Amino acid sequence: MTVTRLDQAQLSASVDELAGLLVDTVDGGASIGFLAPMDHAAAVSWWKERATAVAAGHLAVWAAHDGHRVVGTVSLAFPDKPNSCHRAELVKLMVHRDTRGQGLGRRLLDTAEKAARAAKITLLHLDTETDSPAERLYGSAGWTRAGVIPDYAADPAGVLRPTTLYYKRLEPTT
After folding, report:
1. Is residue 174 domain-resident?
2. What is the DSSP letter of 121?
3. Burial (CB count within 10 angstroms: exposed 0-12, middle 13-18, buried 19+), residue 83
4. How far apart, in whole angstroms, are the C-alpha atoms of residue 93 and residue 106?
5. Which residues pair with 74 in a beta bridge?
6. For residues 48 and 8, what is the distance between their CA atoms, to the nearest angstrom?
7. Cα(156)–Cα(159) distance, rounded to whole angstroms?
8. b/e code 22-59 from CB counts within 10 Å (16+ = b)
9. In b/e form, how buried is each residue of 110-149, taking b as 16+ CB within 10 angstroms?
10. 10-residue mean pLDDT series, the chain (174 residues)
11. How much is the pTM?
């Protein structure tokens, strides 16, 4: 599998595949901000909206391809305030259900962390559904659990669930 950073044109050209991944992820039960069943057209629209943030440098998106389709993605969201240029938020780490368990989630996470270091980011943060499989990934990758917020977001079935906040301090590459 290849993992590549998408520029605005590449993201725009891949929206249908990215939408397919988003639909699979949400319909598979991952709580990433959407309710199931996820409509493909709505997923396409959501990804199209990300292209503007990519072009502006506020969002970096990586996609993993298995040669035929997009099977994973991860993004870094960069704040636009002067006092927060040292940090970024890890968002929308997704792996297609039929490629899980092969280390792709870890590879995507490592890719985002390496890019953050290269960009002189010294702090990453994220939130994820409490007790989700993602928590094991973040914990094993050295992320620190900061706390839990009850009833933070609805899962894909619409049930309010707690979220766990994580952070990771990074040493910039020299």
Report:
1. no
2. -
3. exposed
4. 10
5. 62
6. 9
7. 8
8. bbbbbebebbbebebebeeeebbebbeebbebbeeeeb
9. ebbbebbbebebeebbbbbbbebebbebbeeeebeeeeee
10. 96 97 96 96 97 97 95 97 96 96 96 96 97 95 98 96 98 74
11. 0.95
For residue 96, give both structure tokens: 């297609």
User: CB atoms < 10 A from the CB of 7, how many?
Assistant: 14
Pairing of strands 144-154, 160-169: antiparallel
* 149 found inside a domain: yes
Q: How far apart are CA 9 and CA 27, in angstroms?
A: 27
CB atoms within 10 A of CB 152: 16
| In a domain? residue 93 | yes
Domain boundaries, position 36: 2-169
What is the layout of strands, in order, in the sheet containing 59-65? 2-6, 59-65, 70-77, 87-95, 123-129, 160-169, 144-154
DSSP states of 61-119 as a string?
Answer: EEEEE-SSSEEEEEEEEPP-SGGGTTEEEEEEEEE-GGGTTSSHHHHHHHHHHHHHHHT
Number of domains in the chain: 1
- Which pLDDT belongs to residue 58? 97
Q: Both tokens of residue 47?
A: 């990804």
CATH number for the domain harbouring residue 28: 3.40.630.30
Is position 25 within any domain? yes
